[in-house]
């Protein structure tokens, strides 16, 4: 029966009719371009300006800039306008959409329906109307005790509030039966105002970063003039590359481990997987391309600027990447991207897997966060320009970022720690637990030259490649029909967890299923803290002068280069030599998440997060508690799932195969035929089965022993050191049985089917 279910699923996937959707067309029958449908489901500033009275719209813009508080008249006007706009698009409900501390989003739908009483001839007459007030727009009240709070809320303290995040535009999404729902992006806070979500702290970090970055710029830039207006705001930009797997949904339903934990707890590699290096950037399977195209269509309507799609390295692995946006909006758009991919995949009978390591032995998935800083004038502060050694503004923000990573690298490691990401970090496609920064040979030489007070030796950084001659920053390909191409100032280092890639840093270590809010919040906070040091150093250096001179700036830049030099590494982060070198430099090598979580509370990190106003002490303790408790729960769920699968599926299949072999051997002996082949197989199989039974008994005993531990820190280390090790032993033995047991008896879809059946 189990084998037949696998066969039926494969046959079904090969014979099912493809899903077709009708993309919108113009009047002349042409398919509408992405730009024509982009943002049509978003209540944008442009849409708002058309529907609001001019004074109301002006008041809202002042509020967005932080110059005014949103008053009731403005809130009521916006609520009415967005209700009209949404109902015109078939909206029946609205929801405050927020990001609780569980790496997902949450929503509670409320109808626009309201009952209005009128008295006619002394009798009450009730009329149904659609309303949406300013107070309904501004806040709602979900149950705060039902979300992770780390002890800040208890069951009998249930009140919490969602509050409209005015910087993120409202939008509609399709609902059932042709209806739609209005989404109001929101933050989630407790009754006492503590952050119970990912977004609140991100907004705080953005405000602090903006304030101190502008202060630094005001110390190095001349006063306002028409040609060079002074910078009034600075914000982090973010482009989040999202990796994921797509597998057949019918086969997925036959894998309890995938359904419950998001990863395969059993399963051996097939003879062919990714070793031929033929999947990366290969032709996207037709069924997958259809699903991605539909998802991109929906995301375009939601104003999510998806730019790139391609096959990733592992079989059945893919990636989408957006155009850069302000970080706060990019975070919302990444969560929307994950949600839309999930929903659209279901329509195509596919299942999307966001787990960092759903399949052992092949590449896992990350969420590469491309981070930079931009001004309200449209300038990228991390753009080195053609002469980075003389671009002092660039150097100031570059070395400030480097020193932030040096001072708080362990905090950034804590920001990407989870039970799932532990399976990926340090593997062949992801950086190790040592946080370092890569600049590339040219920028590295620039910083060395500035530190030493000498001219830059660009000749020392030139790379001579076979059949390629480097001439300055242009590559001559020595083929007359091929154009010359510009070469970037930096190469790319895919082993670095924090690499400079031209005009931004790529934080590669972030896990594929986590919200990027938390790691970006920590990065913003660390950079803001270092910019405070930079501001104070510049003030001391320039003295009474209104603007820091070039010499003043260079003196401070040199100081920060020296202090942060140990964080820079240009080599292979996977190598054993780097582990030894990092230890000599004093850089922490945090391998397991339970050790990383504690770095949130390290005195220097906690003080920085409080100083920048991003976390209170209670919120920081809460976050630590939530992370370590989730780690324990995740591993416990995996261990119990593994025990169930082995006991109820793997061992029965092995027992049946042993019985079949024994019966065959007995039959052969009775008819006088040599039965040694069957007996030999039995003798190979029996010790594996016995060892597996012993290991699951050991795993069960370990779980029974540690479950009574009250100290979460001790419990997490037990899960990390004892339970995961025991689970790996169980898996190795179960995978050995998969190689021996007859295929027709094996109950679980194998990697070959999961990888190739799309």
UniProtKB/TrEMBL annotation:
Chain ranges of the GS catalytic domain: 198-650
Domain GS beta-grasp: from-to ranges: 92-193
PROSITE patterns, per database record: GLNA_ATP, GS_BETA_GRASP, GS_CATALYTIC
GO molecular function (one): glutamine synthetase activity
GO biological-process terms attached to the record: glutamine biosynthetic process
Matches recorded under InterPro entries: Gln-synt_C, Gln_synt_N, Gln_synth/guanido_kin_cat_dom, Gln_synth_cat_dom, Gln_synth_gly_rich_site, GS_Type-3, GSIII_N
Family listed: Belongs to the glutamine synthetase family.
Name of this protein: Uncharacterized protein
């Amino acid at each position: 029966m189990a084998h037949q279910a696998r066969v039926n699923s494969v046959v079904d996937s090969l014979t099912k009719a493809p899903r077709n959707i009708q993309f919108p067309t113009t009047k002349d029958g042409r398919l509408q371009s992405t730009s024509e449908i982009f943002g049509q489901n978003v209540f944008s500033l442009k849409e708002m300006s058309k529907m609001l009275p001019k004074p109301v719209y002006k008041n809202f813009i002042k509020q967005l800039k932080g110059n005014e508080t949103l008053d009731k008249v403005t809130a009521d006007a916006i609520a009415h306008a967005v209700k009209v706009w949404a109902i015109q698009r078939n909206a029946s409900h609205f929801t405050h959409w927020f990001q609780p501390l569980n790496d997902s989003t949450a929503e509670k739908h409320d109808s626009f329906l309201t009952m209005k009483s009128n008295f006619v001839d002394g009798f009450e007459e009730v009329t149904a109307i659609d309303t949406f007030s300013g107070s309904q727009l501004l806040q709602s009240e979900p149950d705060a005790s039902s979300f992770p709070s780390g002890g800040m809320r208890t069951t009998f303290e249930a009140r919490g509030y969602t509050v409209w995040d005015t910087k993120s535009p409202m939008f509609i999404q399709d609902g059932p039966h042709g209806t739609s729902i209005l989404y109001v992006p929101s933050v989630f806070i407790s009754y006492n105002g503590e952050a119970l979500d990912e977004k609140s702290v991100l907004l705080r970090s953005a405000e602090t970063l903006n304030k101190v970055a502008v202060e630094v710029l005001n110390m190095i830039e001349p006063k306002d003039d028409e040609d060079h207006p002074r910078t009034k705001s600075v914000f982090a930009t973010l482009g989040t590359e999202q990796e994921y797997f797509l597998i057949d949904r019918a086969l997925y339903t036959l894998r309890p481990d995938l359904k419950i934990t998001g990863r395969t707890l059993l399963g051996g590699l097939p003879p062919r997987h990714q070793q031929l290096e033929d999947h990366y950037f290969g032709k996207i399977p037709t069924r997958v391309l259809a699903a991605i195209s539909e998802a991109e269509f929906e995301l375009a309507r939601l104003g999510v600027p998806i730019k790139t799609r391609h096959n990733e390295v592992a079989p059945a692995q893919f990636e989408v990447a957006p155009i850069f946006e302000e970080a706060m909006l990019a975070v919302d758009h990444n969560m929307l991207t994950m949600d839309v991919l999930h929903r659209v995949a279901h329509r195509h009978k596919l299942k999307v897997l966001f787990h960092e390591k759903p399949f052992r032995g092949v590449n896992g998935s990350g969420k590469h966060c491309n981070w930079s800083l931009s001004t309200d004038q449209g300038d990228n502060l991390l753009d080195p320009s053609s002469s980075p050694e003389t671009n002092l503004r660039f150097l100031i923000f570059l070395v400030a970022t480097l020193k932030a990573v040096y001072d708080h690298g362990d905090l950034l490691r804590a920001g990407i720690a989870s039970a799932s990401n532990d399976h990926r970090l340090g593997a062949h496609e992801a950086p190790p637990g040592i946080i370092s920064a890569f600049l590339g040979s040219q920028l590295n030489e620039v910083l060395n030259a500035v530190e030493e007070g000498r001219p830059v030796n660009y000749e020392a950084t030139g790379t001579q490649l076979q059949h390629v001659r480097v001439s300055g920053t242009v590559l001559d390909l020595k083929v007359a029909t091929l154009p010359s191409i510009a070469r970037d100032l930096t190469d790319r280092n895919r082993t670095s967890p924090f690499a400079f890639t031209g005009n931004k840093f790529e934080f590669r270590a972030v896990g594929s299923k986590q919200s990027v809010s938390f790691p970006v919040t920590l990065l913003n906070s660390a950079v803001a803290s270092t910019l405070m040091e930079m501001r104070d150093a510049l003030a001391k250096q320039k003295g009474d002068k209104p603007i820091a001179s070039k010499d003043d700036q260079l003196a401070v830049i040199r100081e920060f280069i020296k202090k942060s030099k140990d964080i820079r590494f240009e080599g292979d982060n996977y190598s054993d030599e780097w582990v030894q070198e990092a230890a000599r430099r004093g850089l922490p090598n945090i391998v397991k998440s339970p050790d990383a979580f504690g770095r949130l509370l390290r005195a220097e990190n906690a003080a920085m997060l409080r100083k920048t106003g991003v976390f209170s002490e209670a919120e920081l303790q809460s976050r630590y508690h939530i992370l370590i408790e989730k780690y324990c729960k995740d591993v416990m769920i995996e261990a119990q799932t593994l025990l169930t699968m082995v006991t109820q599926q793997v061992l029965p299949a092995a027992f049946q195969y042993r019985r079949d072999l024994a019966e065959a051997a007995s039959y052969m002996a009775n008819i006088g035929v040599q039965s040694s082949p069957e007996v030999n197989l039995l003798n190979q199989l029996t010790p594996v089965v016995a060892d597996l039974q012993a290991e699951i008994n050991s795993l069960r005993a370990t779980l029974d022993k540690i479950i009574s531990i009250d100290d979460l820190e001790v419990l997490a280390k037990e899960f990390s050191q004892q339970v995961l090790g025991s689970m790996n032993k169980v898996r190795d033995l179960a995978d050995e049985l998969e190689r021996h047991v007859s295929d027709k008896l094996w109950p679980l879809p194998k990697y070959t089917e999961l990888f190739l059946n799309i």
